[in-house]
Amino acid sequence: MSHEPLMLEGKPVVAEIYANLSSRIEALTAQGITPCLATILVGDDPASATYVRMKGNACKKLGMESRRIHLPADTTTKQLIDTIAKLNQDTAVHGILLQHPVPAQIDERAAFDAIDSAKDVDGVTSLGFGRMSYNVPAYASCTPEAILSVLDHYQIDIEGKHAVVIGRSAILGKPVSFLLLNRNATVTICHSKTKDLAEHVGHADIVVAAVGRPKFVQGSWLKPGAVVLDAGYNEGNIGDADFESCLDKVKAITPVPGGIGPVTIAKLLQHTVEAAEASV
Amino acid sequence: MSHEPLMLEGKPVVAEIYANLSSRIEALTAQGITPCLATILVGDDPASATYVRMKGNACKKLGMESRRIHLPADTTTKQLIDTIAKLNQDTAVHGILLQHPVPAQIDERAAFDAIDSAKDVDGVTSLGFGRMSYNVPAYASCTPEAILSVLDHYQIDIEGKHAVVIGRSAILGKPVSFLLLNRNATVTICHSKTKDLAEHVGHADIVVAAVGRPKFVQGSWLKPGAVVLDAGYNEGNIGDADFESCLDKVKAITPVPGGIGPVTIAKLLQHTVEAAEASV
Q: Which residue ranges does the record assign to the Tetrahydrofolate dehydrogenase/cyclohydrolase catalytic domain (chains A, B) (predicted)?
């Protein structure tokens, strides 16, 4: 490219979201309501523990409450669902986050779907996904929504563009595909069984890397002037895109770290504030 | 093409489904349970009245019950939802079909979502869509599932193929995209805002025409050897594909009428039998 690619930094997007939330949190607090996010961590995965801590700290910074629930690694599906049921009933809790992934003995989908849709601020329930897909009000999954917020903040057009999403997970690839579709992108969903992945990616105006493989997406695959949104979070803070090789081809790209990740947390807090407002 | 394209007739697919259902309906009847589909028609649209009648007749032919509810054209959303709530409670009713489209004053999505997921045999609720998308057991929308049944019956591979879906409606384009995705196709979803539609279609191994415009998909757009599934049902029994021009290019194509349509009804009855079995 003859010009420097645009860095899609998350920081100004987060600042914009938090500026909007501050006054809303104040207004709620004046009514005696402090927005409260309950986080559930099952087991002792250090990365998961870090993510949960980051979310709790973000709440604190904004004057919100967080309630951390830590369950042992041998928790059963039933015990986890019972814990969720209590939080569903608790009127002081506005949002519930179950940190993904949970230990293998737990039916994660059943646990996610036990979360009351009014408190599903992380956007993980089947019902929430269906509603979001059908344009019924619902909390969308946070990382997909963060991707859209980054595109919007940097005024990157979505309508009529060809978006190629690499990955089809329940909380990332699938929902981001439908968020982009509902914003009038033409969307191609690729995954591990896709043949000629590089060719598919080569047609894209917008590439969403959501595959969970470090430095997977190569610059050589890209159409010149493509926009790359990297939602990867691999060990060592490495994204799903091979950043260096992509730089030569892209119009804009998210850095990792500092791109989508921080916006994801801001979306979680935004949803929790919205849930608190809806509870009034 | 040097050979005649394969005609993907619905008739043998329906025969296969009905052969399987007959013994199951007999077994239920022996237990004193007759599978019962309640159909709701709002207003006097002649095409809708025909569709509802066809579904009732299909039930009768298989020894199932149908209960036809006909509401006036000026029915409100609340009245319709009240009617659905009564059917949700009625243990003699196993499946509920709300004929689409409803008059403009009704919130169709709210009405669909009022159907108990256990009786959502037409696969129209947000919850059912979310569950289907996430591979949680649910009744998929009938026309999308009919498309998959036709592909399976004629042993047309889905895994690793590139499927292009034209249309993104709640009960057709969106669900068929996810059914194909969950069967490991690479899926592109096109719609009214798609640029270069012909080019997208030209990459497809499998084309699903779900756009509601007669003779819209042109043979000249197709890759030689493509498979065309035409889910169109336009006035005068005309499909969404320009059948004549497609014939020169395709490996296989559904006729209209006689392709997807009859299989859709068979899927509805299959779901109703499953719902009756689940109620035992």
A: 8-122
A84 and A166 part of one domain: no
Assigned domain for A20 exists: no
Give the model's confidence band at A257: pLDDT under 50 very low, under 70 low, under 90 confident, else very high.
very high
- Which CATH number covers residue B152? 3.40.50.720
- Tell me whether residue A156 is in a domain: yes
Residue A195 Cα, gap to closest chain B Cα (Å)? 6
Residues B188, A184: C-beta atoms closer than 8 Å:
no
Do the annotations mark residue B123 as ligand-binding? Answer: no
In this complex, do A190 and B191 lie within 8 Å of one another by their Cβ atoms? no
Sheet order of strands, A65-71 included: A65-71, A36-42, A95-98
pLDDT tens profile A104-131: 999 999 999 999 999 999 999 999 999 9
Residues of B in contact with A186 (CB under 8 A): 188-191, 193-195, 200
Residue closest to A254 by CA, chosen among A267, A265, A241? A241
CB contact under 8 A, A159 and B191: no
Residues A162 and A231 in one domain: yes
Q: Give chain A positions within 8 Å (CB) of B113.
A: 136
- Whether residue B249 sits in one domain with residue B148: yes
Burial of A50 (0-12, 13-18, 19+ CB in 10 A): exposed
Q: What is the CATH number of the domain that holds B48?
A: 3.40.50.10860
